[in-house]
Amino acid sequence: MILQGSRLFISCVVLAALWLAPGVLAGSFAPDKSRYAQPATSVSPDDRMAWWREARFGMFIHWGLYAVPAGDWNGKTCGGPSEWIMQSLKIPVSEYKKFAPEFNPTKYDPKAWARIAKDAGCKYVVITSRHHDGFCLWDSKVSEWDVMATPWKRDLLKPLAEACRAEGLRFGLYYSILDWRHPDYTPRRAWNDEPLPPDGARFDRFVEYVQAQVEEIITAYDPDILWFDGEWEDTWRTAHGESLEALCRKLKPDIIVNNRVGKARDDMAGLNKPGVKSLGDFCTPEQEVPSRGLPGVDWESCMTMNDSWGFKRSDRNWKASERLIHTLCEIAGKGGNFLLNVGPTAEGEIPPESIERLRAMGAWLKVYGASIYGTTAGPFRSTPWGAATQNGNSIYLHIFDGVQGAMIDVTALKSPFKAREMQKGSGVLTMKVDDQATGGPRRPDAKASAPVPDRTRLVLTRPPDGVHTPVIELRCEEPPRIVEPRPSLGADGSLTLPAIDAKLAPPAKVERLGGKPNIGFWTSPRATAVWEVELPTGRYAVELELSCTPEAAGNTFRVRVGADDRAAISGTVKSTGGWDRFETIRVGELTVDQGGRLEVTVSAVGTLTGGLMNLRSVKLSRVK
Ligand code: FHN
């Protein structure tokens, strides 16, 4: 019994020694409330965001121990991204730690990395200082689980910060709140075989650890951005985020922090959920682009070039360079930033496939960069031919491939303009402005006094092969005046109203299911979708492209044209088998007695159980 007792006693002493060692080595975990008292100087959001809004394009770097297995372990390849290998293959921490002696990035060349980012046209770099595995790329004073546990045994972040700044790039650090290894982190993973502290896992102590590390990396590297991640588990609460954000701002008043320090992020859509206190300076859509611009909201879409953030040797699913350029144009056209990821190898090399794509983007930006950097979202409601940005009196049209010979409708632009191709003289594009009102093409350099037509279209002819995503500048002599024509009946007598053109009353919002935007989260009778249209008097068939689950089916909806309930039709939502399974249903017919500029409104009728529907579009077809 005594033996048992003493063994028990000894094991407690050993455990305590093991666990406290980092604490003892690193100083106290006693909360230091002065740590995040607000600084004497503060910087306004607009001042600190100014460079970021100009930048538009950054390089993300996911680098860490996960580059050693690179997606493969024990004869298995992990599903999903390689930096998740510990979780996806449930690797015991004790096993995962065996990657540390193999992490020796002898080919790491931070100057080359910074040059690659610079030549790609990136204006900032964000690198993972610590991902969910908890491994630190710097010599942390509060952790032994860092670069000193590898043969490299020296800081990896400082040389990159210096190289980036030498290239005129801003430098940011990604920091994961989620930690699959730390003994105090909860919820603890089943495969975390790190010894528990004698008094058990204490999340408050883990928060102190996070604060201490964030203080370390801000103090050591003076990052322009702190890119938090891994905030989604219940143990991390808004209050933690508020303290952490306050600490960041105290240490560096002009630092930019993303919204993942708090709890408002709406999953991969990355925008702030209504009704949840939002923190940070910008929203963070991931692997997607919001369906439309978000006036007054700073946001950055982060994406991989293949499917994995960390280096994954089996992941050959590389996006084409042209697609990445189009994504950059689409994001800038909606007023956002693009953070494009590379996943270097354990030896310290950026994969050649990534370099190839970054070079192609850099070559395009060398010619067309003025249409991206420093621009704001384009002024047109929709750009089926590509994307559009604006900078002062200039509007830039990014013409995606396959559009040659088509009409670029810019009727909404009422200000006189001069049109020019940005790569002048290369024969990239010949074009004419086809003004129906004046009975023929208006020369692109028409005098400002020329009559403003009621329909203006650019007719593009085919550029020579090999020229991709050309850009046309429409230069106005005044701030561009935009009057969007209201959607009206097409030649076939029908009008389709897409989800992204609707004005929505919350909680309804646009999401993307099946690769197309739809109105979703229709969970309250207050939610409505409204389209402004121009419709002649007449009788119309009404069709909805919608989806609904069997559980939510049965609610009643109404489609109304104008304010007149006589021009309205109701229906009951039937199941289509799932929220992502859309069907077009014919609701019936309605009569518009008084045509003109009207509103089409879709709403729920009566009480609502679950979601009303997911709605992709409303189609009105003239029946007589
Ligand atoms: O789980 C991480 C993932 O590994 C990667 O770091 C991305 C990049 O934003 N963030 C999380 C997934 O949302």
Describe the fold and architecture.
It is a single chain. By secondary structure, the protein is of the alpha+beta class. 20% of the residues lie in helices and 26% in strands. The strands form seven sheets. The chain has a seven-stranded parallel beta sheet, with helices on both faces. A five-stranded antiparallel beta sheet has the order 10-11-12-18-14. It has a five-stranded antiparallel beta sheet with strand order 20-23-28-25-26, with no helix packed on it. A hairpin with an 8-residue loop joins β10 and β11. α5 packs across α6 and α7 (203-221) runs parallel beside α8. Bound molecules: ligand FHN. Ligand FHN binds next to loops.
Biggest beta-sheet profile: 7 strands, parallel
The rounded distance between the terminal residues' Cα atoms is: 96 Å
Which outline best applies?
Answer: globular
Based on secondary structure, the structural category is alpha+beta
**Count, helices:** 10
Strand content: 25-35%
Rg over alpha carbons: 28 Å
**Sequence of strands across the biggest β-sheet:** 7-6-5-4-1-9-8
Task: Name the poorly predicted regions.
Answer: 1-31, 437-442
How many E-type strands? Answer: 29
